[in-house]
Amino acid sequence: MSTQERKQRLELLQGTLDLLILRTLLLGPAHGHAIARAIEINSDDLLQIEQGSLYPALHRLIKRGWISAEEGVSENNRRAKFYRLTAKGRRQLTVETGKWDKFARAIARILRPAGQESEP
Amino acid sequence: MRRRKRMMAELGRDIRDHIERETQDNIERGMSPEEARRAALLKFGNVALVKEDTRAVWTTLWLEQLWQDVRYGLRQLLRNPSFAALAIITLALGIAANTTIFSAVSLVLLKKPAVRNPDGVMVVFSNNTKKGYDGLLLSAPDFEAFKRENNVFEGMAAADGANLTLTGHGAPEELNGARVTTNYFQLLGLSPAMGRSFSADEGEAGRNHVVILSHGLWEQHFAGNPNVIASHVGINGEPCTVIGVMPPGTDSPVMQARLWTPLVFSARDLANRGNRSLLAFARLKPHMTTGQANAEIGAIASRMAQRHPKTERDYSAGVLALQEYMIKAASVETSLAMLMGAVAFVLLIACANIAGLLLARAAWRRKEIALRAALGAGRLRVVRQLLTESLLVAVGGGGLGVLLGFWGIAYLHTTLNWNSYVAYLGRNLHMDGRTLFFSVGLTLGATLLFGLVPALQVSKSDLVGTLKEGGRAGTEGSKQGRLRSFLVAGEIALSVVLLAGAGFLIQGFVQMIMQNPGFHSTHVVTARIVLSSKRYRGDPARQAEFFESVVRRVRDLPGVESASATQEKPLEGNWGRPVKIEGRHEAPMAGIYYVGADYFRTMGIPLIRGRGFSRMDKAGTASVAIVSRAFARRYFSSGNAIGGRIAVKTRHPSWAEIVGVVGNVKEWPGERGYLPQVYEPFLQQPMASMAVVARTHYDASAFAPLLRRAVWSVDKDQPIKSIMTMGQVADQAGVGGIYFMAGLMGAFAALALVLAGVGIYGVIAYSVAQRRHEIGIRIAVGAQRSDVLGLVLKQGALLAIIGCGIGLALAVPLPRLVATMFGPFSGSPLVLTGVGLAVAIVSLLATYIPARRAMRVDPAVALRNE
C-alpha cells in the first residue's frame, strides 16, 4: 500500500465505528474479520479502520445489549465467534442512522451553502 | 463478572483467528507468507493495547491498573528499603513541621470566634490620631453615643475587663472577669448551658448582684456541682447569686474572662470621657457591610469630636470584624508567616531530596521502563506507574508526618507563648479538621512536585537508545544529571536562607538577653495583689497599711533576704508620664514607679547618690523622689539631681524633693537606651494594686504557699495573682516569644541543613557510582588517587558554592523581617559568615564520604565489571 493510497483513505470519526458495525450485522451474523472486511469493501476501501479497534467496539456493543456473541462454525469449517444484531440493536441502528443523516446534512449545509450548491 | 471473564478469555483466540484470516487473505492476494503475516499484524495494530481497551470496556480499568501499579510499586519499594525509608522519613519530617505550624495558624488566624454568626459581629474601637494608637477601648459616653446614633447595627454590647475576687468557696481567688451589658450574651448569640443569662433589669444599680460562670471556672472552682445555680458567692466582697454557667469554649473573645457580672453605668461613668475601658461589640443589621459600619461610626466619632473638642479632638473611631480584631490582638501574624515560610522551605528541601532520589533510581530503571514502553505501555501509563510509587512514598511519609504532627502540636500546646493572649489561645490548640485537611492536601501537592518531574523526565527518554546501550547500566543522561545538580543547588540555597533567618533571630535574642536590664532578675519573686474588696475602696491609709503589713510579714519569712513592693514591675512596659521639673519649662516623659522602702536593695538596683526610701517617707512627711541616672544626666547639670524638685503630672501634682539617684532599668526587653525614671514612695501615694517583691532563694512555686500564708494572715479574703520570678516576668514581656521563635527557627534550620547534606551526599554518591568505569580508566592510565579525590570534591564544592551564593543573596533582606518582630535590628555579618561556614562544612562532609569511595576504586574490578 503506497503512502499516496494511505493518504486518500479516511480516518473514522469518533463513534461511527459502532454505527458501521450495527449496519454490517443487519445483513446477518458475522465474525470479526468478516465485519472488518465488509466495512472496507462496502466503502470501496476508502474507510480505513485499524482492525484491532473493532474488538473494543464489539465488546462495547455487547455490553449495551445491541449485539450478541455466539460460537459458530465459519465457511472453512473453523470454530469462530459470530456476532448477531439483537432486536434492541436493530432499533438502535434506526435511531443512529437518523442521527447520522441529520448530522451529515447539517455539516454539508455549512460546508456548501445553498447558493454554491453544485448538486441538488 | 463471569461474563466478562469468559469474554476476555475468548478475546485472545478471536484476535489470533482474525490475524490468521487476514494473513490468509493476504496470501491469496499474492504476498509471501511472511509478508502476509507482517501486513496482517500491521493492519491489526497493537494487540496488547486492543486487549487492554477491550478489558476497559468491561471494567473501570483505571482501578484495576491502579491496583496493579500499587502492587508493583510496593514490590519496588521493598526491593530497595533504604531508598524507601529515606524518602518516607524525609517527607514525614517536612509534613510534620508544616502540620505543627499550620495548627497554630489555624487556631490564631483562621478559627472563627465561638459566637453565633461570627461574620456579623463587629468590634467598635477608637483611635488616637495624634499618638498613632489604634484599636483603643471606648469610654461609656462614647459607647452610648455610638449605640444611640448608629443605623447600621442591630445592637451593641460592652464588656469591661475586671479583676474579680471570688470568695466564699475555699481560697479567695482573683480571676479575669468582665462586667458586661445585660444584652452581651444575647448579642453574641451565646446561651448558658445551665441557668439563665442576664435579664435587662439586672443592668440597674442595686439589682446587679448576679454572676455567670464560665464552664472552666465551674469545673475547677465548684467541682462541676450541678446545684451551683442560685448559690451565693462573694465577688469583690459583695454577695452575689450564681444564675448561669456558660458552655465550654465560650470564654469572652479577647478578654479571657472566666466570670461575668452585669455592667452598670453610673451617672459619673456616663460623664467620664477620660476613662476608656470598654470593649464594644456590635451586630450588623442584615445586608449591612463592614465598610458601611466603618463610615457610619467614623461619622459619629467626628461629630463627637466637634461636640466635645476638649477630650475627643484627637480621636477617631472604626469597626473591625471580631475575627480580625482578635487576630490583631494576638499580633503574631509576622511570626506565624515567618514560621510558615520556614516549614515551607523545609518541605521544599525534602521534596527536592526525594525528587533527586527518584531521579537517581529512575536512571537505574531506564532499561526496565524502555522495555515496558516497547511492550506497548503508553507514556501516560508509565508516568502513572512512576507516580504511583511516589504516591506510596506520600502515603507512608504523609501518614507518618501527620502522626509526628500530633506530637508537634502537643509540644506547641505547652510552649506557644508569644504573649499571654496567644498562650491563652494555645490551650485550645489541637489537630483540627482544617489542619488535617491541609496536611493531606500538602502531601498530595508535594507528591506531584517530587514525583511528576522525574516521571516525565524518565518516560521521555529515548527508547531505542536506552535498549541499545546494552550492558552498561544506564549512564545518566546529561540532562538528568543537570536536573539533579539543580535540585541540590536549590536545596542548599533554601537551607542557607533558613539558617540565616534563624541565625538573625538568635542574634536578636542573644542581644536582648545580654542587655543589662538594670536589676538582678534571679532570686526575685513577685506577686500582684489588687485590693478590690469594699473594705479598702477609697481609703488610701488602709491600703498603705495593708501593704506595709504584708511586706513586713514577707520579709520575716524564712529564706527571704529583703522584701518590698512596687506599683509597676520593670519590663512590663511603663509608657511614662510627663514630669515637671522646677526651673524648666517643658515636662518631659518619664517612667513612674511607686515603690516601698528597700525596693532598690531587693531588686538589686544600685544606689548611686543620696539615699533610698525608708519607712519614714510616708503620708504627712515631706514629699521625696528618687530619679534614675538617665533622668539626672539629662535634666540636671553635671548629673547632680539631689535637692532638685519635680512633680509628676497627676490629678493633684505635688512637688517632691529628689533625695537619691539610682541605676537605670529597662522598661521593656530590648529597649534601646533607657527611658528616664522617677520613683516615689508608695506610702505617700498609696494605691490599690501593688506587686510584692521578695529576694529569696526559693523559686516561685516553692515560695508561693509561704507568700499566700503571709498575705492571708493579714486579710484572709485577699487573692494573690501571678506569683512568678522576674525571669518569668521577662519571658512574658516578650523574651519568651523571641526565645520560642529562635528555638523553632533554629530547629527547622538544622533540619534543613541535614536534609541538604543528605541531598548533596545522594548526588555525589550516585555520580561516583556512575563514573566508576571512567574513574577506573583514569587510575589505570596513571591518575593519582588524590587527583580522583579532587575531581569528586570539586563537583561537590561547585554545587555548594552556587547554592550558597544564591542563598546568601536571598538572605540579605532578612534582617528587615526580623526588625518587624523586635524593633531596630541590624544583622551581623557574623551570622552570614557562620551560615556559609556551616553549609561549607556539611557539604564537604557529604562530598568527602563518596569521594573517598571513588579514590578506592580498583581499576581492575571496575573495568572487569563491564
Would you write up a description of this structure?
The complex is a heterodimer of chains A (120) and B (866). Chain A has helices spanning 3-8, 16-25, 32-42, 54-64, 87-111, and strands spanning 30-31, 67-73, 79-85. Chain A has a 3-stranded antiparallel beta sheet with strand order 1-3-2. In chain A, α2 (16-25) packs across α3 (32-42). Chain A has one domain: Arc Repressor Mutant, subunit A, CATH 1.10.10. The longest helix of chain A is centred in the C-terminal third of the chain and has 25 residues, at 87-111. The N and C termini of chain A lie far apart (35 Å). Chain A is built from 5 helices and 3 strands, in the order ααβααββα. Chain B folds into 5 domains: 2-51; 60-114 and 334-474, no CATH class; 132-313, no CATH class; 479-519 and 726-866, no CATH class; 534-716, no CATH class. Chain B is 55% helix and 16% strand. Chain B has 29 helices and 23 strands. Chain B has a 6-stranded mixed barrel with strand order 4-5-10-7-9-8. In chain B, α1 packs antiparallel against α3 and α20 (540-555) crosses α23 (700-714). The radius of gyration of chain B is 37 Å and the shape is elongated. Chain B starts with a helix and ends with a helix. Mean pLDDT of chain B is 84; it is low at 470-474. At the A-B interface, α3 and α4 of A face α1 and α3 of B.
